[in-house]
Design a protein that fits this description.
Chain lengths: 150, 150
DNA sequence: CTGACTGCAAAGAGTTTGCAACCTA
DNA sequence: TAGGTTGCAAACTCTTTGCAGTCAG
């Protein structure tokens, strides 16, 4: 993966720096989390001090352009980033718990049908979509939380 | 509608002010637009100078709490507000043109099926959802725009 | 060596808030 | 008159940018 990154960067005349390595590693190790730039910053800070928040932003944006990450907004005005694993590219939605803030992934291809319908009815050419469900996760339901805080 | 607002406010011990009236009117007259706070500000400024941007924010948020408006984020980090007409409450999605920025509404109830599936599979209790499609609208396709200008 | 990259601090954009004056009921 | 509401400006949060020093290749 490290090598893949290096090659991809080289092709664009860019360089592999320790900061870029450590950010990628952090994101990879976490798997399917949905971190804000600030959370990524805190995370890599535990490993090194040689990085700034500005670099985190620049690096995350770079990785988005390289299709290593995907930007994702959870509706609270803060950008989040997640691994762009090709397999779940298009059929990958988010369940956002309004009680505890956790973000759960859900895969389904039901939207294909809807996209076809939209193309026909509205003449709109779809490139991407974003589907989020807000509500109350299983754990919070058990705890008896209402799930409607905010 | 004016009266309805007055009553609704009274029930909460709140008051009907000229600013609140004019904001509601502006939103109602526009029908199904999706304005940012700043756009609402510019709009009402053409009618009166007796209003500030801070009041626009406070008023829009108040109307959201009263279910007169719905907050809606188009993915560019700016909050937009739209009339919360009950009829289209749940089956109401947005097509966002990446080329010209226009926002088109689309109604469909296909998500019901998906929501049922999610409740069962993930045990997640859904309160609301947000579905946005990004792509290229009919007009921009005619003009030969690619529809991916960020 | 060269120019891509970084940290820092300052600037931006959008939104919220404290406070004194104001106005609705 | 009372306290909800407003305008103003300052504060806040998240994100971007300019710049001089640094470092990868």
């Amino acid at each position: 993966m490290e090598e893949k990154l290096k090659t991809a960067l080289h092709e664009k005349g860019l360089r592999l720096t320790p900061q870029r390595q450590i950010v990628l590693e952090a994101m990879l190790n976490l798997g399917e989390s949905h971190l804000t730039a600030d959370q990524v910053y805190s995370l890599v800070k535990t490993q090194t001090n040689d990085i700034s928040l500005a670099t985190i932003y620049r690096t995350l944006e770079l990785f988005v352009e390289m299709n290593l990450l995907r930007r994702f907004d959870s509706g609270d005005g803060v950008a989040r980033y997640e691994i762009d694993s090709q397999k779940s590219e298009h059929y990958h939605h988010h369940l956002i718990c309004l009680s505890c803030g956790s973000i759960i992934e859900f895969n389904d291809d039901l939207l294909d049908e809807l996209e076809t319908k939209i193309s026909k009815k509205a003449g709109f050419k779809i490139a991407d979509h974003c589907l989020r469900f807000f509500g109350c996760c299983k754990e919070c339901q058990k705890k008896g939380k209402p799930g409607s805080s905010q």
